[in-house]
């Protein structure tokens, strides 16, 4: 029997202009979101889930019993799961600037009737958090019990504790960083170059039905490698071969076939300009700020924090996660760091891992 | 005073057909090469240097005093240097299949008058070594004192000790592997996809003056990241910014500018089809063979071997280098492994490092 939650995606329409951190504004915006569980009477049991770069608002359950896939964190969120929807009211929204139903570069600009494309204002992690805050208020929640997210979602989680310190009781950030390293920026720049130099990008003004598909697929293939690990890939693919087609540069190894599939399926569900905007938001993310002091930025934090690094994560390696907690502790905050020994690289936070479930469950209920 | 060696590139023309390991043949071939120092009377002081994927035959000295750059390993090769050209006769050739003067996909196919392009036979590391052997014989050398190479050059070095066991006294392989890992194949596949999907690739039959430049630059930008390290990039670039041009997705960080430059300069000196052929040769390289036994393959080796791994190399990490020596030792051979603590990633073998020089010098003279 399929005991998946059955869920419905909803829209929060903010009818009023929204100003972006780096300048620019839009006259209104939409956030697509889902909720699971029930908000209690004093609105004290809400947990906000923040998705990663390529994620969305659909983090648990199915829309219909026949759906092949559950939401991206269904192993963590649901009745009796680590984030127990019998106990908590769980919210997840596609970020502002996203392309899965929230307002972003691929949405229609009401003043022109065309897609925003590059007319969309430059985006930051703080913009995403400020838009989420409006949704949370709309849902009648003043203080979130928790904010939880991995990778880019971890950045949003940290940003919540700084931008709205009195609105969050607990944060859990996984596989994340307080600022993008040169290497992480470098990988994003290669992906962006692949998109921008694709002739079908057309300076960002492509038709939505025939964008820079080649560039976007290349960007995704490369990025996907950074989400895995050497050991994990050797375990999963090794040097296993595909049956030869006889074509000189056709797929020869299983890992090549897997990557091509990842690239192609990403093109079918993601918008290229959005990929540019979101990776730029990642690259600009730098909580150290102008004073180069992470301690200083966390001095405002009121939430209790748990940060979890994964040993095989080489995109946001353990030391980048640990240094966040070290700064919180120096700032005199309640913070704890732990590291999970897992081989699957950056994406370890998404896989089935009872150790992780225990950590989430106990930290949220303690 | 500039005390650079002044050198001349030469051509070895093999007038006779050459058969490739995977099938196919070419009616003749050329290897472009350089030599430094003097071959002694009994031809016992020759050292062959094997270049990496994007390297060539010009590994030391200058062609003219006004040249801005020395050869790629000039810090190692020259009078009184680690590989002392007062003592040794040093040879370096652009590999067969290469595009720096040796016969490869970008060379003219005499039977058609056109470039070989995809008519060039599939290439392996063993093909490169077998072509080098003909050059070595042409130079009157029966037994090489040493074969030395890093990265792809390390693969050639290992292959020499197996294919021509009685023709090599010593091998030094640096930052290399006995077989490409799934991750290394994956990165190469992304690079190849960028080239093949560039409309200017034209199924490999592009005009030599306007090939798939965008795809090749993307491939190089990405590969270049894998040659460095997280720590090295943070040290060199950190989050340093460029002056903004105001363009939305123009270069913002120094590291982006550096990568774009690397991509562009590579396009100016390298051929895209050659990149496809060489990366395929890397991916197919698997000394474990059908019996999955590295020990067995090294049972034929007669040379003494030194293998050097670099702590920050994540493309061919230390354990991949160490396992080569472990197999040699299990096969009862003279072999030693060492690991240098260097932060610059895979390319550490190319940088100024007195510890490395000492190792090379003493192993070659011991």
Structural descriptors:
homodimer, 366 residues, alpha/beta, Rossmann fold, Rna Polymerase Sigma Factor, Chain: A, 2 domains, 8-stranded mixed beta sheet, 10 helices, 33% helix, 16% strand, globular
Description of the structure:
Two copies of one chain form a homodimer. In chain A, helix 3 (182-196) runs antiparallel to helix 7 (272-284) and helix 4 crosses helix 6. Helices cover 33% and strands 16% of the residues of chain A. Chain A folds into two domains: 10-181 and 285-365, Rossmann fold (3-Layer(aba) Sandwich), CATH 3.40.50; 184-280, Rna Polymerase Sigma Factor, Chain: A. Chain A contains ten helices and twelve strands. Chains A and B meet through helix 3, helix 4, helix 5, helix 6 and helix 7 of A and helix 3, helix 4, helix 5, helix 6 and helix 7 of B.
Number of DSSP helical runs of chain A = 10
What topology, given as strand order, has the largest sheet of chain A?
1-4-8-5-9-10-11-12
Distance between the termini of chain A: 33 Å
The CATH C-level name of the largest domain in chain A is Alpha Beta
In CATH, what is the homologous superfamily of the largest domain in chain A?
Alpha/Beta hydrolase fold, catalytic domain
| Oligomeric organization of the protein chains | homodimer
Query: What is the number of strand segments of chain A?
Result: 12
Instruction: Kindly state the percentage of residues in helix of chain A.
Output: 25-40%
- Major sheet of chain A, described briefly? 8 strands, mixed
Order of helices and strands of chain A: EEEEEEEEHEHEHHHHHHEHEH
Strand content of chain A: 15-25%
Report Rg of chain A: 20 Å
The general outline of chain A is: globular
Domain unit count of chain A: 2
| Biggest interface and residues each | A-B, 51 and 51 residues
* Average pLDDT score of chain A: 96
CATH topology of the largest domain in chain A: Rossmann fold
Give unreliable regions of chain A as ranges: none
CATH architecture group name of the largest domain in chain A: 3-Layer(aba) Sandwich
């Amino acid at each position: 029997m399929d005991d998946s939650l059955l869920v419905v995606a909803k829209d929060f329409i903010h009818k009023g202009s929204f100003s972006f951190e780096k300048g620019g504004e839009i006259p209104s915006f939409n956030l697509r979101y889902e909720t699971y569980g029930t908000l209690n009477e004093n609105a004290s049991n809400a947990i906000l889930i923040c998705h990663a770069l390529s994620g969305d608002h659909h983090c648990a359950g199915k829309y219909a019993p026949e759906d092949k896939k559950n939401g991206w964190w269904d192993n963590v969120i649901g009745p009796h799961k680590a984030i127990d929807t019998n106990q908590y009211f769980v919210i997840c929204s596609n970020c502002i600037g996203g392309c899965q139903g929230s307002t972003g570069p691929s949405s229609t600009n009401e003043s022109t009737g065309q897609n925003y494309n590059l007319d969309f204002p430059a985006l930051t992690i703080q913009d995403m958090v400020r838009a989420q805050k409006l949704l949370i208020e709309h849902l009648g929640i003043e203080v979130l019990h928790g904010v939880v997210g991995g990778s880019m979602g971890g950045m949003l989680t940290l940003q919540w504790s700084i931008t709205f310190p009195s609105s969050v009781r607990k944060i859990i950030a996984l596989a994340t960083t307080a600022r993008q390293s040169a290497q992480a920026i470098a990988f994003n720049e290669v992906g962006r170059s692949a998109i921008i130099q694709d002739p079908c990008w057309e300076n960002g003004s492509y038709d939505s039905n025939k964008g820079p598909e080649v560039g976007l697929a290349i960007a995704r293939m490369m990025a996907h490698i950074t989400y895995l690990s050497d050991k994990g890939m050797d375990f999963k693919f090794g040097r296993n071969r595909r049956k030869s087609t006889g074509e000189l540069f056709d797929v020869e190894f299983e890992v090549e076939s897997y990557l091509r599939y990842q690239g192609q399926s990403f093109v079918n569900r993601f918008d290229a300009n959005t990929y540019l905007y979101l990776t730029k938001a990642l690259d600009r993310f730098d909580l150290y700020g102008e004073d180069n002091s992470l301690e200083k930025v966390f001095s405002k934090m009121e939430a209790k924090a748990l940060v979890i690094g994964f040993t095989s994560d080489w995109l946001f390696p353990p030391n980048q996660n640990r240094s966040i907690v070290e700064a919180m502790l120096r700032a005199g905050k309640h913070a704890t760091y732990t590291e999970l020994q897992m081989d699957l690289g950056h994406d370890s936070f998404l896989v089935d891992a009872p150790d992780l479930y225990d950590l989430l469950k106990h930290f949220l209920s303690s």
